[in-house]
Amino acid sequence: MRTVFCEKLKQELPGLKFAPYPGELGQRIFNSISESAWQQWLAHQTMVINENRLSPLDPKARAQLREQMEAFLFGGGVEQPAGYVPPEA
Q: Which CATH superfamily is domain 3-74 in?
């Protein structure tokens, strides 16, 4: 099993099986983001798309999601969308 030191979670964890995004950013994610952190991003991305009613086909929405992804995985994190109320457990 391939492991990476995850930049998001700051520990050695199982890595992704392939680059999940094209280009240089995809390679950076593959080299330094764990499967667990990627799954966290996918859940956050779904929430952002739903709360902001984004269309993944819209180039502006894709650019916004890329910025959010970089901030979530490599930056200091991202804020929840305005008005977001988490579901009750």
A: Fe(II) trafficking protein YggX (1.10.3880.10)
